[in-house]
Amino acid sequence: MTVAQLQQEITSLIPMLPEPELTVVFDFVRSLVEREPQTAWLNAQKQSRAYQEWVGSDNDIYDQVFADAAR
User: What is the C-alpha separation between 40 and 35, in angstroms, rounded?
Assistant: First the structure.
């Protein structure tokens, strides 16, 4: 199915929905639209040098904490 066909199918089904289900559809679609920029932003942040240094092994403070606790 093409994008245009999908849009047409969705558009034809929307009028059949009662209000409660229409609200659910609206919330779902809005979350999909808002999620994409957040995902792109998060991926860009994960690739930053600062993030890589933060999660890198040189900055792993828990190794020492757990080593001390195991003694």
Answer: 9
Q: Which residue is listed with tokens 């047409």? A: 8
User: Do residues 34 and 28 make contact, with C-beta atoms less than 8 angstroms apart?
Assistant: no
Query: What are the φ and ψ backbone dihedral angles of 32, each rounded to 5 degrees?
Result: -65, -45
Per-residue pLDDT tens over the stretch 6-60: 999 999 999 999 999 999 999 998 888 888 777 777 888 888 888 888 788 777 7
State the pTM of this model: 0.47
- Give a yes or no: residue 14 inside a domain: no
Euclidean distance between CA atoms 8 and 34, whole angstroms: 22
Look at residue 55 and tell me if it is in a domain. yes
